[in-house]
Amino acid sequence: MPKQVDHRDRRETIARALWRVVERRGVSQLTMRVVAQEAGISLGQLQHYFASRSAMLSFAMDFASEQTSLRVGQGLTRLGDRPHPRDVLRVTLAEMLPLHADARATSRMSAAYVLEALHDEAVREQARRGLVRGRALVEELVRQAIADGHIGPDRDPATETNLLLALTGLTPLLELGVIEPGDALTAIDAHLERLFR
Amino acid sequence: MPKQVDHRDRRETIARALWRVVERRGVSQLTMRVVAQEAGISLGQLQHYFASRSAMLSFAMDFASEQTSLRVGQGLTRLGDRPHPRDVLRVTLAEMLPLHADARATSRMSAAYVLEALHDEAVREQARRGLVRGRALVEELVRQAIADGHIGPDRDPATETNLLLALTGLTPLLELGVIEPGDALTAIDAHLERLFR
């Protein structure tokens, strides 16, 4: 392995190969051997970057979260200065749903990861921390919106946060073509409409 | 295989073994060989009942849906005659979340099934039909509640149905211990409170 190959770059290339395996072939095909093959490297090379399947999966999930955050950040930039919290939530929720190719890859990765977390203590702890952190960011936004008078003071921030995150439950309906992307956005807007004053 | 062993019974026993594999070991371990082992039969015997992994998985999912419907039915019986549609929805949604052992098994089965459906055309079609059917039942209930004046006439039945089904999105929060069962029920109640007049 030439030294000039950046370690982080190579790990991201492997993570993307892992996503492709999850997206196209399913989590049941997710072995280090299959990911190495998809990434076009040997199993030995893969093991140089990730000591275990769990370590590889955890990195791929962290990278998926980062990519989602980046997309959300780009969406927020388009909203201009001091965007309304309703628009911030709309952009955030939309990027968490499989509404376009990039979001679909990270959404499938995330679903596979939660299932894996149920049977792997290390993955579980990391998945839990990630979800706690994401949930805290949304709750902070809700609390601030209440403080700023955008959301009624009678609303419970914790419950509203859980209801907002629950909107990712539209995912199976979208993935199986039971509803269209437009239906999901309409549902999100209807929910936000009632949350905000 | 003795003739007196009821075919359906044996298939249900295998389906339960499959659930246990999904629940305890994860979908990545879900092979016909592992399920046969868990069910305490030979791979040949398993293949007598299911010609393929897809067929086995589809039956296990149908059986999980049936079991969920049974639990919902039992919950509705406890509500007595002519229950309020809000209570019907509350019982239905609560049984779709992993709030107790039986519901957890069927919920994990369902999550694994959706992921599998993305990579298997036959599974996908069956999963889609199941979801369309379930969604139609909820929408019919919403439409009837609007007709009976329980839900405002300004509400769009399709959107309200999607928002109700989205509440299953609380599942990862519950599975990873980010929220407690009581928090999920509070969120469901808050949502229903605003849906009904």
From TrEMBL, chains A, B:
- What residue stretches are annotated with the HTH tetR-type domain? 8-68
Q: Which GO terms describe its molecular function?
A: DNA binding
Pfam families in alphabetical order: TetR_C_6, TetR_N
What keywords appear on the UniProt entry?
A: DNA-binding, Repressor, Transcription, Transcription regulation
Q: What InterPro entries is this protein classified in?
A: BetI_C, Homeodomain-like_sf, HTH_TetR, Tet_transcr_reg_TetR-rel_C_sf
The entry's DNA-binding region: 31-50
The keyword Nucleotidyltransferase appears for this protein: no
Its domain of life reads Bacteria
- Keyword Transcription recorded: yes
Q: Which residues form a coiled coil?
A: none
PANTHER family membership:
HTH-TYPE TRANSCRIPTIONAL REGULATOR LMRA, TRANSCRIPTIONAL REGULATORY PROTEIN
Name listed for the protein in its UniProt record: TetR family transcriptional regulator
